[in-house]
Write a structure and sequence with these properties.
heterodimer, A: 133 residues, 5 helices, 4 strands, B: 180 residues, Fructose Permease, seven-stranded mixed β-sheet, 7 helices, 9 strands, 36% helix
Chain lengths: 133, 180
């Protein structure tokens, strides 16, 4: 993952993808690894076309989306049918993206699988407890 | 949390048929607004996706089933099949949504099933020949006329992308001023 070369697309609702990139940039300074894309105002065919253009034009091998049933995921699955080398990861989160980008030694599919495992384990529910003395 | 009464808590959803809650035209078909935005407050039990292309493609059906929660059924049908199934769907105890991807498919279904009295415009996005009416509704002159024809038949047409938004009547949609 050399500087300036994006390796993945983040396609999501509203401004979420741009927010993820902003957060990755703030934490690691490597927001440039991700290309943000929004589905706002786009029909299904337009979303698919936009993702495909990024995949082909920027030689992208990984797509992160937010909702498993969302229009970005549906579009990414259609892109995958035409470009089977592409790896799709749904349920994007900051721990997922940070882990993915920190494993540049791995192939994209392996890095994605590692990141999914890490992200799942990063979800916790913490109950409140009185502070002891 | 939105101030929408969850269907599971609603007396009208307990122990009797609730029929199809929404007949929606949405060119994204099954997506976040439908599954989560409407699905959670309505406590949706099923989605009927009426589309010629999807009804003929197992791959596309699997695609649309993929992200839907396991407790939610998805039925795929052509307008002809849907008109035959509609009575059974309406008798289902669970709330449901019927989706088409375009106005013409909904028009064809309504011609076969006059019991449909209300249509929701959920997302008709930009394409050549269409002009902006709402931020999520773009229409060509032919589509405007098709919607007017539905209203002349007694079908109430309104636009509403998510449950917490105001339902915009067709006349206001066509004036294109509801967002301004």
């Amino acid at each position: 993952m050399s500087e300036g070369d994006p390796v993945a697309i983040i396609a999501a609702h509203g401004d979420l993808a741009a927010g993820f990139v902003s957060a990755v940039q703030q934490i690691t300074g490597r927001g440039d690894l991700f290309l943000p894309m929004t589905n706002t105002g786009l029909g299904a065919a337009d979303i698919e076309r936009a993702i495909l253009e990024l995949v082909d034009g920027r030689r992208i091998g990984v797509i992160f989306t937010d909702l498993p049933a969302g229009s970005c995921t549906i579009a990414a699955r259609c892109v995958q049918a035409a470009r089977p080398h592409v790896v799709l990861v749904t349920g994007a989160s900051l721990p997922l993206l940070l882990d993915f980008m920190s494993h540049e030694e791995l192939a994209p599919a392996e890095a994605a699988a590692h990141a999914v495992d890490r992200a799942v384990r990063s979800i916790t529910a913490v109950s409140g407890a009185k502070r002891g003395h | 949390m939105p101030s929408i009464e969850r269907c599971a808590r609603s007396p009208r959803c307990r122990g009797r048929s609730v029929a199809i809650e929404l007949f929606r035209i949405d060119d994204r078909l099954i997506h976040g607004q439908v599954v989560v935005g409407w699905g959670q407050p309505l406590n949706l039990g099923f989605i009927a996706l009426v589309d010629d292309e999807v009804a003929g493609s197992e791959w596309e059906q699997e695609l649309y089933r993929m992200g839907v929660p396991p407790e939610m059924d998805v039925y795929f049908a052509t307008p002809d099949d849907a008109s035959r199934q509609l009575e059974a769907w309406q008798a289902d105890q669970r709330p449901g949504v019927l989706l088409t991807g375009d106005i013409d498919t909904m028009r064809r279904l309504i011609e076969l099933s006059p019991s449909i009295t209300a249509v929701n415009l959920g997302g008709i996005h930009h394409r050549a020949g269409r002009t902006l009416k709402l931020r999520y509704v773009y229409l060509s002159p032919q589509e405007e006329e098709a919607l007017r024809a539905l209203e002349r038949k007694g079908v109430a047409v309104s636009a509403q992308d998510v449950p917490s938004a105001r339902a915009v009547p067709l006349e206001d949609v066509l004036r294109g001023e509801a967002d301004r």
